[in-house]
């Protein structure tokens, strides 16, 4: 089996490397020449645990290669995966499909023999049909089928998610395409992964339904957390109390500063737009989007309140800026709302992130970046934990207190316990919990 992966980003690179690990011959294609050059030199352009070894091993075995030349990448391919970005379209929140349709045009020109064209990118219902129309228009003679195979991996645990997924969703009407997809995912059949075979439209919608459901669950517990603060309850106990009910489930009930990242914000918005367009509005999701936007903005106010209502002329240390730990991805990270709001209120922001600083430097001007957490804390009036990287879970609190001008911590990820922080002499606030004795 031979496949081409068009788009070598977080999803394309991980999926391509994992398919090669399954024994498939994979060529990853990207328009970004710098990215391909780095990959050819053995450098991994993104931070993703375990990806380095996986790529190196499969390149060495001759199963994984990289190119900017789509024709070369597609040579002899049984299937071509589209894994390009589908960001929010500026202005209206619809998914921007220009990269997908651009890739479809180029793919059409290079089809040789029967080929399955698979959309792995998250795309609105109807996109697969449009890809089919584009290819037919460009190459009426081409022998191909289209399929939708949305990706559910999470950055930070992407390899394990791809290799041992909860399920694989495949949408196509063609038996030949279905057979090809079964062969590609053969190792997952052996570990009895549920494979959900659907129509094209159903597969496309399933991905959005999954992401919007998860975003709704997070938003629900965030609002419960706010209520807990008002009534003196503890959101973690509430989450455990409800999560142990099998109908609810324990996951995604951790309160925080609002969801961010490369998927939830844009996918919730895109589904809202699709639903409005076809006259079947999703009012729950519309509300979720609104609440989450406001929440991210309101987090700076919490930090300002912890500083006595004024941050003008004060130094705020920010620990973590990526949208979650174990990634360098800054797309729609809550820090992008929080940090500028603090700066606008007059604060000097000093920040540290174990992997995201390089990317964040471009997006957060005026921030003083440090080489470690303690350097960020030195002389600070307040510290805010914005991303729960493991190394922030075990800070030496005595040292932190000595370094800071005032021992004030705003823990937006509930990494520490209120009792522990009170005992260590901190003015500590977190999300949805009483502030301590
Ligand atoms: P990304 O921006 O990291 O990567 C996209 C890549 O596609 C870029 O490197 C870009 O240069 C390349 N590209 C664009 N047009 C091209 C073309 N015509 N030919 C070759 N290369 C081209 O994006 P990503 O995070 O990997 O996301 C890709 C898709 O997967 C999106 O639809 C996203 O919603 C979905 N998805 C992402 C995740 C995630 O965690 N990042 C998880 C599941 C699904």
TrEMBL record:
Q: What is its EC number?
A: 1.1.1.22
Supply the InterPro entries for this chain: 6-PGluconate_DH-like_C_sf, NAD(P)-bd_dom_sf, UDP-Glc/GDP-Man, UDP-Glc/GDP-Man_DH_C, UDP-Glc/GDP-Man_DH_C_sf, UDP-Glc/GDP-Man_DH_dimer, UDP-Glc/GDP-Man_DH_N, UDPglc_DH_bac
Q: In which pathway does it act?
A: Nucleotide-sugar biosynthesis; UDP-alpha-D-glucuronate biosynthesis; UDP-alpha-D-glucuronate from UDP-alpha-D-glucose: step 1/1
Top EC class per UniProt? oxidoreductase
- In Pfam terms, one family for this protein is UDPG_MGDP_dh_N
Which SMART domains does UniProt cross-reference here?
UDPG_MGDP_dh_C (SM00984)
Q: Which reaction does it catalyse?
A: UDP-alpha-D-glucose + 2 NAD(+) + H2O = UDP-alpha-D-glucuronate + 2 NADH + 3 H(+)
Q: Does the keyword Membrane apply?
A: no
Q: Does the keyword Transmembrane helix apply?
A: no
Question: Which residues does the UniProt record annotate as the domain UDP-glucose/GDP-mannose dehydrogenase C-terminal?
Answer: 317-418
Q: Write the record's keywords in alphabetical order, separated by commas.
A: NAD, Oxidoreductase
Matching entries from SUPFAM superfamilies are given as: 6-phosphogluconate dehydrogenase C-terminal domain-like, NAD(P)-binding Rossmann-fold domains, UDP-glucose/GDP-mannose dehydrogenase C-terminal domain
Superkingdom of the source species? Bacteria
Q: What family does the database annotate?
A: Belongs to the UDP-glucose/GDP-mannose dehydrogenase family.
Protein's UniProt name:
UDP-glucose 6-dehydrogenase
**Taxonomy-wise, where does this protein's organism fall, top ranks first?**
Bacteria, Pseudomonadati, Pseudomonadota, Alphaproteobacteria, Rhodospirillales
């Amino acid at each position: 089996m031979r496949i081409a992966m068009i788009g070598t980003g977080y999803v394309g690179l991980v999926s391509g490397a994992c398919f090669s690990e399954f024994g498939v011959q994979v060529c990853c294609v990207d328009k970004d020449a710098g990215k391909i050059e780095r990959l050819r030199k053995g450098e991994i352009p993104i931070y993703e645990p375990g990806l380095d070894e996986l790529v190196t091993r499969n390149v060495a075995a001759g199963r994984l290669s990289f190119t900017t030349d789509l024709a070369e990448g597609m040579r002899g391919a049984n299937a071509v995966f589209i894994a390009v970005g589908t960001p929010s379209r500026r202005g209206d929140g619809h998914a921007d499909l220009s990269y997908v349709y651009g890739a479809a045009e180029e793919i059409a020109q290079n089809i040789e023999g029967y080929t399955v064209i698979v959309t792995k990118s998250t795309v609105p219902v109807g996109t697969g049909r449009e890809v089919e129309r584009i290819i037919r228009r460009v190459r009426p003679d081409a022998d191909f089928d289209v399929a939708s195979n949305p990706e559910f991996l999470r950055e930070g645990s992407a390899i394990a998610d791809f290799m041992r997924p909860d399920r694989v969703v495949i949408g196509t009407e063609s038996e030949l395409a279905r057979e090809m997809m079964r062969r590609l995912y053969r190792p997952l059949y052996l570990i009895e992964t549920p494979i959900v075979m659907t129509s094209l439209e159903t597969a496309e919608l399933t991905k959005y339904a999954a992401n919007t459901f998860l975003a709704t669950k997070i938003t629900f517990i965030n609002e419960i957390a706010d209520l807990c603060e008002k009534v003196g309850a503890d959101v973690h106990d509430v989450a455990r109390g409800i999560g142990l009910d099998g109908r609810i489930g324990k996951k995604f009930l951790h309160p925080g500063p609002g969801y961010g990242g490369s998927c939830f914000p844009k996918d919730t918005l895109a589904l809202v737009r699709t639903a409005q367009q076809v006259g079947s509005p999703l009012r729950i999701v519309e509300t979720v989007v609104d609440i989450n936007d406001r929440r991210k903005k309101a987090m700076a106010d919490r930090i300002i309140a912890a500083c006595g209502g004024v941050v003008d002329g004060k130094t705020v240390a920010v620990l973590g800026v990526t949208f979650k730990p174990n990634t360098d991805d800054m797309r729609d990270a809550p820090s992008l709302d929080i940090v500028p709001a603090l700066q606008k209120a007059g604060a000097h922001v000093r920040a540290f992130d174990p992997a995201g600083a390089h990317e964040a430097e471009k997006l957060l001007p005026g921030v003083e970046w440090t080489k470690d957490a303690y350097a960020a804390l030195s002389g600070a009036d307040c510290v805010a934990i914005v991303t729960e990287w493991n190394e922030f879970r075990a800070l030496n609190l005595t040292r932190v207190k000595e370094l800071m001008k005032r021992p004030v911590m705003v823990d937006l990820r509930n990494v520490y316990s209120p009792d522990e922080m009170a005992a260590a002499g901190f003015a500590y606030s977190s999300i949805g919990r009483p502030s301590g004795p």
